[in-house]
Amino acid sequence: MTAYFLRRLRQSVVLLILVTIVAFGLMHLAPGGPEAVYALSPGMRAEDLQRIRASFGLDQPLPVQYVKWAAGMLTGDWGRSYRDSRPVRDVIFDRIPATLELTVTALAIAIVVGVSLGVLGALRQRSLPDYLATIGAMVALSVPTFWFGLMVIFVFAERLGWIPSGGRETLGADFSLADRLHHLIAPALVLGLVLVATWSRYTRASMIEVVNQDYIRTARAKGLGERRVIWGHAFRNAAGPLVTLAGLQIPFLFSGALVTESVFTWPGMGRLFVDSLGYRDYPVLMGVLVVTALLVIGSNLAADLLVAVVDPRIRFR
After folding, report:
1. What secondary structure letter does DSSP report for 232?
2. pLDDT tier at 312, thresholds 50, 70, 90
């Protein structure tokens, strides 16, 4: 496994470099730039815009800009935001806790609800709960996240007043766990329920394949309780594909968080990315992309290694 880990680690480093090159190139080749925001100011002259480009280092060749940026990232100097001159590292690290709070809660909701529905569907195939779970999964996969979030705000915040319409905490109030949960529940449910469909379908298919195996019938014949048979034997052997699914869903989780954070004005990295796009804040955009890429690549690598822990039959070469 050590050799496999080192090989995957090398591949991950190469992948990260390629991602940063492509993202850096596309970002700087897109029309407009940070100086376009200043161009809207009255009295702004062409020579003023040129000085702004020079101060940002945008007048240098693109490969030189990338090498300087990459060298800064490796030495811990992520640059400064074009918007307010704050260090990019501080800007991003201030937003990471909010994003992790949202995504971890949403993933926990998706796993608990999705796995439960999937196991229920596998044990009661073609029953009413199974059909309802299938219909619900199709609906969840078809509904856009932003529309779902807006409807939740309209119904439960505007009409019923049960939840806040946005934010992470009540402005001006002291920290309270109840207040934080009150603000978290809506965006976490919106993001998590969208992922429930995938978890329930994968769990159902994996469990159906396992519950018909001979060793499950043998366990029942030995007099083991049904709960122990299902969760101790069947689900444990069906969990291998689910561990892989967890790693594969991390990218979708972050992309969904980008939309959810924008709809609910949640102060995380997703909203920071959207705001930085409007200001053409290249250093912040690249910093967010690098952090997200590291989390996605790392989670996929961890998922691959955990598969061997869950299923001892798997051996890496």
Report:
1. I
2. low
